[in-house]
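User: Before I run my own analysis I want an independent prediction to cross-check against. Here's the chain; please return only the structure tokens and, at the end, one sentence I can use as a sanity check.
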Amino acid sequence: MEKHLLLGNGINIQFGGSEFTSAHIIKRIKNNSAANKYDSLFADKISGTDIISIFEGLVGVANSIIEGKHNDKSFDLDTTEAICDFMKRYTKKVSALHEIMLEDWLLLLHVFFSLNNDLMPIYQTAVQGFEQLLLDAIYNNGEIQKLYLKMNDEIKNFFLGYENIFTLNYDNNVESLTNRKVYHLHGDFSVLADSENPETALGYIRTENGDTAWIAEMKHCYCNALLNYSGRLKYKTAMKKYLTILDSETYHNRYKNDILFRTSLEINNSIEAQMIRTKIMHPELKMATDYYFSKFESIKGELDIIGLSPNNDQHIFDGILNNKDLTKVVFYYHDGKERDYIESHYPNELFDCLSVQELWKSLKCGKE
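Assistant: Structure tokens:
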């Protein structure tokens, strides 16, 4: 029987310690901002003090959600569901920045802009800025990419026993350890975003025009990471790109055989048309990032899950439940609450819960 592995941030905490918990990541943003580390990232237009003030202001938005002040607002379905989930997880008033989990900041930002429509023109710029701050703090001056040095031969051989390894993490430790392909469902620090990557059609165009934005000392902030307050929104983005990739496979034949397609493409100078023309002229280029959900959703046999919180990333569990070729899912839980959640929310005939602490002991891995 085929066996596959899915990894979450718990593995980074196991080998990297508390430095890679959400609380410490948020503290790093505050400390880095106070030290003016992000001046180059924001072209000296936003100071470190400004960044801290923005985060502190969003704490007020968090507490207003906890108090139920936004329950009657006309938000879209994804936001409404995210607000309900936020209220379930935060039952007490928030008093410090690090008490709020990473991607919940993107929800707070979205709620703030939704309540201030006059600011909506700068919303996407604000989101991009927040994502870059989160990515830099996760990256931790490159320390996150060195965790494989703390992994022993037992864990290496354990990983090598799987048919495919999927991860929700952005780091490249498992591939550094095993010298194998690892499928990043949410993006990868080592791969630039489509707009910056010269191996994609859009990135090629922008590189040729000198329009790319990434800077060497902050290159990791311009990677292809998927960040969002809703797992389903991440999934929508990933699948939209996947469908673009599939569509791009038809461009050459359509240009050759469809006169309407060819004529339209030749007179249209939109960025989309430029990308299609570039792809036709340079078939080696990628049309978009592949986040490998199609591969993940087609696996067969057994799936083992390590380091993933069962309360997050519902789109992952949706994909698992919709895959009729999976015969067994082993969820390695961190504590009793995680085990109880899995056993009460997912079919017992499919899911089996095992202690991750016992797994680490069997692999002779001590916690950092």
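Sanity check: The chain has 17 helices and six strands.
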